[in-house]
Amino acid sequence: MTLSPFSRYGAFAIALSLTACNMPANGVTSAAGCTPGAAAGQSIAGLEQVTLCVTNATKTHSFTVEAARTSAEQAKGLMFRTDLPDNAGMIFPFPEPRVASFWMKNTVIPLDIIFVRADGTIESIADNTIPYSTTPVVSGEPVAAVLELRGGLAAELGIVAGDKVQWTTK
């Protein structure tokens, strides 16, 4: 996955703004055993991993996601990965909401690309994106982050537009 680069200061601003909009007043939320932002160590790619929760009216799903915060991390994304476990993914927070555009160049596996508004709700889902495609996958409106999961997983779990995504990063 390749994303347009932005400054390190922008990445820091992203983390601060998304932490603020996704962090409850007391600093901890636990919905059905999912605590957004719980530290989960480093991934094999060396990225910080955190717990991310996706909640709809009836269920909360917990994922351990890699946080791609820098321009280099976002440019590489999940390229060259040959598998992605069902409980894993990657979050791409932005410094401020914007129309997001991704492609699948050098991405070996299909992904669900989930566009997340500043309020944490899912704007839209591009499901089962085509590996190696250079056709842009674009959000329908400005978003604050993008979540990538294994292709087809969102539909399997019943994750849809309007569901709530929560996480925090340093």
Write a concise keyword list for the protein shown above.
single chain; 170 residues; alpha+beta; Jelly Rolls; eight-stranded mixed β-sheet; 10 strands; globular
Short summary:
By secondary structure, the protein is α+β, with helices and mostly antiparallel strands. The protein is built from 3 helices and 10 strands, in the order H-E-E-E-H-E-E-E-E-E-E-H-E. Strands 1, 2, 3, 4, 6, 7, 9 and 10 form an 8-stranded mixed sheet that branches.
- The overall pLDDT average reads 84
Count of discrete structural domains:
1
CATH class category label:
Mainly Beta
Distance between the termini: 23 Å
The H/E string reads HEEEHEEEEEEHE
* SS content category: alpha+beta
Tell the overall outline: globular
Q: Supply the number of helical segments.
A: 3
What's the helical proportion of residues?
10-25%
CATH topology: Jelly Rolls
CATH second-level architecture: Sandwich
Rg for CA atoms: 14 Å
Give the CATH superfamily: Protein of unknown function DUF192
Low-confidence stretches: 4-30
Beta-strand content bin: 25-35%
Q: What is the strand tally?
A: 10
Description:
With 170 residues, the protein is of the alpha+beta class. The chain has a single domain, classed as Sandwich (Jelly Rolls), CATH 2.60.120. Helix content is 15%, strand content 34%. The protein is built from 3 helices and 10 strands. Strands 1, 2, 3, 4, 6, 7, 9 and 10 form an 8-stranded mixed β-sheet that branches. A two-stranded antiparallel ribbon has the order 5-8. β2 and β3 form a beta hairpin. The radius of gyration is 14 Å and the shape is globular. About 16% of the residues have low confidence.
